[in-house]
Amino acid sequence: MKNIVWACLIACLSLLPLWSEGGLPVPVPPRVRHETASVHLPSVAFAALETISPEHIRWHVRFLSHDLLEGRGTGQRGGDIAAEYIATQFAEYGLKPAGDHGTYMQKVPLVGVTTLPETRFSLIPKKGEAMDLKPLDEYVAYDQTQRAQSDVDAPIVFVGYGIEAPEYGWDDYKAADVRGKVLLMLVNEPPSNDPNFFKGKALTYYGRWTYKYEEAARKGAVGVILVHQSEMASYPWEVVRNSNSGEKAALKVDGPVLQVASWIHYDVAARLARASGMNLDKMMQDAQSRNFHPVDLGARLKAHMVSKIRNFESNNVLAILPGSDRKVADEAVLYTAHYDHFGIRPDMPGNNIFHGASDNATGCGILLELARVYGSAAGRPRRSILFAAVTAEEQGLLGSEYLGKYPPIPAGKITLDLNYDNVMPLGAPEEVEVSGAERTTFYPDVEAMAKEFRLAIRPDARPEAGHFYRSDHFSLARVGVPSFSINEGTKYKGHPESWGLVQEQEYIEKHYHQPSDEYHPEMDFTGDSAMARFGFALGWEAASLPKLIGWQHGDEFEAARIKSQQ
Does domain 2-94+322-564 have CATH number 3.40.630.10? Predict the structure, then answer.
């Protein structure tokens, strides 16, 4: 019977062009077994997939990025409205609540920290006058202790990249005692083309600022000063400034933290080095060697941190479609997207609403369209399907971190997380990016599905940016769940690859984490719809496999997966 269904579908599809609905790729049911894997979407799944519409995604994006939602700030009115909107859609689609106490909401307890104007941040060099830095223009800083006031007067030690990675034979600390000190360090990690050394050009978690703060705090430092350079960070100072102004949210403190977690502009760091009788460029060059040892600059940081502290709750929005097979219905495929952005910045002149149209109303639009299609399908996959619109991603993946710690289904029984984040509406894609999928046992199925969709799998176009560690799937990976994001590549129908690269670079330079990330009627959501279709097919396939998906042997998350299933 199954063969007859596929034969009929193939016959029907043979009458259609490869690109339909404004350029959407149409998957062709498999006729021969691939060398890697074969996909087995049933007819009910295929019929549901065909109903995915770019216009449905468009209207979600338009609403979520509207001025009325005030930038969807975490713990702000607009963010709460967005959560209620998403919960209402889940209910309309017939999905069951998976949050607290039979609701769609999972409350996430947070602490808001706003650095107040009374804060003072001075670098006292070995020689010369104190450098009293100007907030936002020259530095940004937060007090992670969640206290209203902290005072730091401590020596500054340069620790290179601030990384201790024994598996790569790398240690910037060299057993130095950094307790009570402030650590000056570089963003990113030692440059390399060797895939066996910090994964070559691809950024690992060691290069993320979150790791650097965490490691310094574990070693007893009272502060960290990160040196920002656009080429190394992969984004301009404006992103640092906009991401670290206003209120900064955090989960309640449950481990060592810093009194001063800060960034300074490269030019400021160069001035400090010169005043300390050193050269910053040479310091950066020296830091690229395994023989590097920490350097005491003979300078001090004198900081008076004054903060407004606000305890509040935000919400992850959770819904579930129960699986059809009672033997595995307690297992699930998870779809995630964050709904928060940066809200309104009253201290910013002009357009001060951070609309977050691409980042990440697009991911939410896709998540909601997937929820609609799953909910309206004539049948259900064997395993359950979980949907999570998470909060506080822009604050450091906080909502997904909380979800990973308190999932509605145990992490060991979540077979896969498919995440959507910032899927720019640029037209019909000819490529898909699934960076991190190759680390899972599901990758042969991903390859086979991409082939059916006529999509080339593109390696991460900017591996040095460390995207795998910068979105919500990472939080699920940390607790063992095989996870990756789905996004377009850079090749679009009717355009050369260079066009896609230009669009991406222009977005990063002019719109990323800026108020100008707005909805425009001329946006083409064909690609978002294509990514939704691809993700729907992958999710249904994952929910139907005989066994749960795992990480490849030796992967950094394999141990967490094993632990979650014990």
Answer: yes
